[in-house]
Amino acid sequence: MADILISATSIVLLVLFFGTINGMRPKLPSDKGQDESDDGICKSMVEPQNYVCEEHTVTTGDGYILSLQRIPVGRSGGTSVDRPPVLLQHGLMMDGSTWMLLPPEKSLAFLLVDNGFDVWIANSRGTKYSRGHVSLSPDDAAYWEWSWDELVAYDLPAMFQHIHGATGQKFHYVGHSLGTLIALAAFSKQELFGMLRSAALLSPIAYVNQISSPLAKSAADIFLGEQLYWLGLHEFEPKGEAVGKLLNDFCNQPGINCSNLMNIMTGPNCCINSSTMNVFLEHEPQATATKNMIHLAQMIRMGTVAMYDYGNEDDNMSHYGQSTPPAYNMTSIPNDFPLYLSYGGKDALSDVKDVQVLLNCLKDHNGDKLVVQYRDDYAHADFVFGFNAHEVIYDPLMAFFRLH
Ligand SMILES: *[C@@H]1O[C@H](CO)[C@@H](O)[C@H](O)[C@H]1NC(C)=O
Ligand SMILES: *[C@@H]1O[C@H](CO)[C@@H](O)[C@H](O)[C@H]1NC(C)=O
Ligand SMILES: *[C@@H]1O[C@H](CO)[C@@H](O)[C@H](O)[C@H]1NC(C)=O
């Protein structure tokens, strides 16, 4: 029964997620008249669960205006004094609501605050509540002129400085998926440690050339093969027509069965039930820059963790002062920085073989500063929406934070 529900939901996901396939778009409860969530994440997702919530904004060095939510105290009240802050950084095509899709006793954001932490929720540039800019609009091509290099160079430092300034404390970091890559990249440049106590990386992404997701691999080939066309779109809008066509072409290949698109993309998630999927669809997926997708496609093809490749020596030279894009050196992450890594045996984006390459870079890490957790049954999305993640992932994660 649960299987049937999940696969029925996935057909809805397929159509809705990517919008215009065959011109179909089912009417869902969330489609009614006004969109309540336009008030922001505090109003739409946090306050209805009876938590205090503060909306913050941060302006990055390159002009993007990002929203951050803070849940300073648990449902039982109290003060935010002596609560270690934690920043939650979502992954690709997600936003801050990712951490609140399950009921409070199962969602990481609420679980942390009810366990004595001061919770901060990041929303990367281009997502629904972080589309402001001091001079550009998302309708301008220039607004989308970035890849995850800029999340490392601008978004993370701006949010980190804001949280550090507001709390006067060092904090913990939790990243999922792309949220792990940008942290690892910053750490490899010896940046941000001064404000951090530790980091927990769920579904870690660094090396991705052994990725097993057929959809991600196929998309990477298409992005690189038709790079000029894709870059011309600037905004990568998952519900837009171009992505709908890409998906339609992908799903019509022999041997490809798109009845469960979430699983085709992220691996066979063990532990996501249909009610969670419906909540997910009300909030995600979110837009990103096409340039960001091309950058990830380059990594899938090249097997490197390096900055965006402009594709010819002259352009690389003018951006970087060298003919090849500078690498992020994962072996230079300091050995004494406390890291908690959790990865899954069924994850099609954070493939076990790729995680082994990353772990090999961390082989000299101090034994008492590195915890590696492996869940055989988990795929990519289980780490954030799994109905048992609170027991199998978040409890040990919070125990790790308490030690650091
Ligand atoms: C695709 O997979 C679903 C669920 O596993 C199955 O019910 C369906 O028959 C498959 N379709 C094809 C064309 O193989
Ligand atoms: C699915 O999740 C909801 C919300 O956590 C829960 O109430 C329900 O019992 C779950 N269903 C199954 C089949 O696990
Ligand atoms: C990466 O960093 C390590 C440790 O700092 C260093 O030994 C190694 O030479 C670096 N590799 C490259 C390619 O720069």
UniProtKB/TrEMBL annotation:
Gene Ontology molecular function terms on file: hydrolase activity, acting on ester bonds
Signal peptide (UniProt feature, chain positions): 1-23
InterPro entries linked to this entry: AB_hydrolase_fold, AB_hydrolase_lipase, Lipase_euk
Example GO biological process: lipid catabolic process
PANTHER family found in the cross-reference section: LYSOSOMAL ACID LIPASE-RELATED (PTHR11005)
Stated family: Belongs to the AB hydrolase superfamily. Lipase family.
Pfam families in the record: Abhydro_lipase
Protein name as it appears in the record: Lipase
Domain Partial AB-hydrolase lipase: 44-100
Keyword flag Hydrolase: yes
Active-site residues (renumbered): S177 (nucleophile), D347 (charge relay system), H380 (charge relay system)
